[in-house]
Amino acid sequence: MARYHTIDANTLDTEKPPGMIRKIARVAKRAGRTVVQKALLLFFAVRNPATPAWARRVIYGALAYLVLPLDAIPDFIPAVGFTDDLSVIVAALAAVAYYITPDVKQQADVAANRWFKQ
Asked: What sequence ranges are listed for the domain DUF1232 (predicted)?
């Protein structure tokens, strides 16, 4: 059981999700499962109190790049629009991989499965 606050993936469809989750949900269908799954890993890692401040800054930067409209490659371009977003998220995951615990992975899987109905 997690020692820190988690988001119940079962409520994400019926309630308005808070803050960053709402923004990730807004781009979820366009970005695809791969991008969203990795973004959720970062989201749940940043909520863990064991994640240090430097790692939180890396995570917030990567998630901001995903949800902000200014990108190196605009998101509206079919097939390649989210490749730069994915690259930034993967780089952030590599930097903070130590803080992606099994509990964080499980929470991200549950949320992604709920959003993508698997």
From this structure: 56-90
